[in-house]
Amino acid sequence: MTFTAAPNSGMSVARWVVDEKPYYWPGTTDLYRESTLTLENVQKDRKVAVEFSKAGTYKLTFNIESETGSTLPSVQTSAKLADGTAADLNAVPDGAAVTFALENLGSNYTVKTWKVDGKEAANSGTQKQFTLRNITGTHTVTAVINAAQEVTLTFKAVDAKGDPINADAGIASVTAKIKTAMRLPAAVRSAIIRRLSLLLR
To answer: pLDDT digits over 28-60, tens only?
Structure first.
């Protein structure tokens, strides 16, 4: 079931209230302020209300930076509203959600993190897109990227006593090549070693 709010000129959605509780974007603590609200699988009476406030618009800036200072690639970017239309970053509506994306980031680069106003965004992850919700002011969104590096890991096979297994035994070593933009965490290295140890038995 979909509800549509139609605020008067100069007004915008302040919040939706469902069953007398503020409605948030699923899985977040960000107020949901879009003009339409959809409730799935309605099997009982529900109470839905919408509140309005004076509308405003805000300017957003979208930047890309390299953590290491290396030359940045030419990347096609996009910024879209929740309905999929292109966002005018010079006049983003009050309460809107904007998804920023790196459309053609090549395999030689990885996203390290996303920042909002110079601070790492909570749970932003390393995906090629990031959504800023419930916009109520001017912000700068930055994607921090790194050039990927190929790391070669070589594992030598040993017997139960720790002595190397010679080539005549059929297994001398195993080599794995991994593209990464950072040093592998110790837990990841240990997991790889354990897995290869099982394969070499």
So the answer is: 888 999 999 999 988 999 999 999 988 889 999
Q: H-helix or E-strand containing 111?
A: strand 109-116
Which H/E stretch holds residue 16?
strand 11-18
Contact at 8 Å (CB) between 155 and 173? yes
Cβ pair 5, 48 in contact under 8 A: no
Alpha-carbon gap, residue 102 to 116, rounded angstroms: 16
Break the chain down into helix, strand, coil percent, rounded to 5. 10, 45, 45
Q: Helices (DSSP H) in the chain: which residue ranges?
A: 186-200
Q: Is the pTM of this model over 0.70?
A: no
Rounded to whole angstroms, how far apart are CA atoms 117 and 127?
19
Q: Look at residues 112, 20, 12, 134 and name the one whose alpha carbon lies nearest to residue 66.
A: 112
Dihedral sign, Cα of residue 114, residue 120, residue 121, residue 125: positive
